[in-house]
Amino acid sequence: MVKIDKELNEMEENIIKMGNKVILMHTAVMDVLEYPDKEKELEIIQSDDRINHLEEEINDQAITSLALLSPVASDLRKVIAAIKIASELERIGDYAKNIAIFMIKHEELDENIREYARSMEKEFIAMLENAITCYMNADVEAAFEIPEQDKQINTLLKETKHNVTKQQEEALLEHVFEISSMLRNIERAGDHVKNICEHVIYMVKGQHYDFG
């Protein structure tokens, strides 16, 4: 029992570490949206490798727990949730990388688009921070509340796309698809945070829940 507890604690610590690193990636995205900086944008891209390595480490810990330690049902749910949450965080890190790649190519992005993107990132980062805290505390009540924050991200995305299509600036219209794709990275990241909340609910209660 002591051995499985040690493995589970180390796995949880790695999930929290991974979550905090992903938060830092998106915080850096907010910075470069306000002040473009190719060096910082490249750092965001390179950070994605560290996130990938952490996911692999968590998966290895999960395999060890499953293969050698014969966890009971509640511990088994913790292992399964850890694997799934690590996968969600890896995807969220990818979205930060995608935005950084976009910024390298589009340094002269319209100021209104930057502001909307920063607002979406701010909402998203708060949502992810809450989800990591929710996981740490095994807080089912918070797991049901956090997905509501995603609605504001979706609202901002709709407003931005509407404003872009209304404007007549040739530079904006020329890149409308790329701008939309960049912003959708943030919207999709929010969806993955909702998934994290689903995994927390499963981990604690053994119930599957779909926030859509």
Structure characterization notes:
This protein is mainly α. About 85% of the residues lie in helices and about 0% in strands. It has helices at about 1-35, 40-70, 75-105, 110-135, 140-145, 150-165, 170-175, 175-205. The protein is globular and about 60 Å long. The two termini are about 35 Å apart. The mean pLDDT is about 90.
Summarize the SSE layout with pairings.
Layout: H1 2-34, H2 38-68, H3 73-105, H4 111-137, H5 140-145, H6 150-166, H7 170-174, H8 176-205
InterPro entries: PhoU, PhoU-like_sf, PhoU_dom
Family: Belongs to the PhoU family.
Keywords: Cytoplasm, Phosphate transport, Transport
CATH topology: Methane Monooxygenase Hydroxylase, Chain G, domain 1
**Over the alpha carbons, how many angstroms does the gyration radius reach?**
19 Å
Question: What are the secondary-structure elements, in order, as H or E?
Answer: HHHHHHHH
Number-wise, the strands total: 0
Distance between the termini: 37 Å
Largest sheet: none
Beta percentage is under 5%
Helix content: over 70%
If classified by CATH, what would the architecture be?
Answer: Up-down Bundle
Structural class: mainly alpha
Q: What is the CATH class?
A: Mainly Alpha
Q: How many separate helices? A: 8
Taking pLDDT < 50 over at least 5 consecutive residues as the criterion, the unreliable ranges are: none
Quaternary form: single chain
Overall tally of domains? 1
